[in-house]
Amino acid sequence: MKTIGYVIPCFPTLSETFTGVEMRAMIALGHHVVPFSFIKGQHFQRADIPLMKQCCYPSALPYYSLRHITHSLRSLPFIYQQREFGRLALIRQGLQLALWAHRYQCRHLHAHFAWHSAAIAIVAAKILNIPVSFVGHGADIYAGPQDLQAKLSHCQFCCAVTKAMHDHLQSLTKTTVYYLPCGIEEQNYPTLNNDWSPSKRFLFIGRLVEKKGLITLLKAIQLLKQPIEIDIVGDGPQKAELMSFCKQHGLIHTVSFLGSQNAEWLRSHAERYQGLIAPFTIAKNGDTDTGPLVLKEALALGIPIITTNLVGCTEILSPDIGVLIKKDSPEQLAMAITNHLLKSHQELKTQRELGYRHVMKTFTAKAQAQRLSQWIEAL
Q1: What pLDDT does residue 285 have?
Q2: What does the alpha-carbon distance between residue 104 and residue 99 come to, in Å, rounded to a whole number?
């Protein structure tokens, strides 16, 4: 099977777990995977440590690599279509990546995010005359696309993590776009505990940024006649604003900020929570969650879900396995929380069982890797 070079903006990270999940699934199928990242993350999942040790970073390569300079001519048509990146820098980094990919005998380059990682992967692939593909995730497609059509025109195929993104990207290009949702590692999620007996606490987990809709969550809590307690797990630029809101509105005894936690923490603490609240929205710059992995993880762990009816969520959940409400509506969210509190244990048990079966049938990393492997091997 082909050796695949993975090109990633930052690896490893605590929040973007899907890259490590995908690489491990491809390795399990028999591929040799070699990761390359432009930045080494400071906080990461324990499961990503072996891949981090294998990962190559620019500091380990010559700043100027001339070994494949004569073949860089192949990349010029693509480079001349770039408006977001300096052409000389793109050639230099493409030659760096080509040197690394040639050293490890990569026969395919696969980039995550349609930003500089995809651009440099395309340049390196053209230099080496090997196929290249990339995955669009969200902000790189909707909030800040960079020379997207040029990338689509010069890759062998592109992957979209939602069906809506697939349709959008396919409308821009004749290049094949595949639907490839992010998957979960099923071996980390044993069968559900039928003796589930959670506390009264709710959970939010994710980056503390605008698109997560946390201000809507705090406003909804203010409207509740029956108070709740919720743990907010994560970190990010909105944290100070959220904590200030809680202090100003008397929510400091209701809302607990637990900081960033790894995937193992979620798996070990999941059973104590009666529900996950994920009030996703669309940020002012257009950024939004696409196929949020946390929803799939919650289904696999048997945590009932309340979220919004954004496309990325409706592609994962149906009304029988999760509650979907209008975004940016504290009133609807407060009503959904109230209704959740009124559900019987049997109702929630049925919801958990249906959700678990659904995610294990539809969103496992193994199933997604098998499809990706077929597309790569066919080239």
Answers
A1: 92
A2: 9
Q: What does the buried/exposed string (b/e) look like for 355-377 if buried means 16 or more CB atoms within 10 Å of the residue's CB?
A: bbebbbeebbbbebbeebbebbe
Phi/psi of residue 282, nearest 5 degrees: -110, 120
For 218, the enclosing helix (H) or strand (E) is helix 214-223
Q: Write out the two tokens for 239.
A: 């944290």
Does the domain spanning 3-183+364-377 belong to CATH 3.40.50.300?
Answer: no
Of the CATH numbers 3.30.70.920, 3.40.50.150, 3.40.109.10, 3.40.50.2000, which one belongs to the domain with range 186-362?
Answer: 3.40.50.2000
Q: Could you give phi then psi for residue 205, rounded to 5 degrees?
A: -140, 130
First to last CA, the chain: 12
pLDDT, one tens digit for every residue, the chain (379 residues): 999 999 999 999 988 899 999 999 999 999 999 999 999 998 888 999 999 999 999 988 888 887 888 898 899 999 999 999 999 999 999 999 999 999 999 999 999 999 999 999 999 999 999 999 999 999 999 999 999 999 999 999 999 999 999 999 999 999 999 999 999 999 999 888 888 889 889 999 999 999 999 999 999 999 999 889 999 999 999 999 999 999 999 999 999 999 999 889 999 999 999 999 999 999 999 999 888 999 999 999 999 999 999 999 999 999 999 999 999 999 999 999 999 999 999 999 999 999 999 999 999 999 999 999 999 999 9
Closest by alpha carbon to 206, among 261, 143, 269? 261
In whole angstroms, give the CA distance from residue 41 to residue 37: 9
Distance CA 95, CA 173 (A): 27
Q: In what order do the strands lie in the sheet with 132-136?
A: 32-39, 3-10, 108-112, 132-136, 157-160, 176-179
What helix, strand, coil percent values describe the chain, rounded to 5? Answer: 45, 15, 35
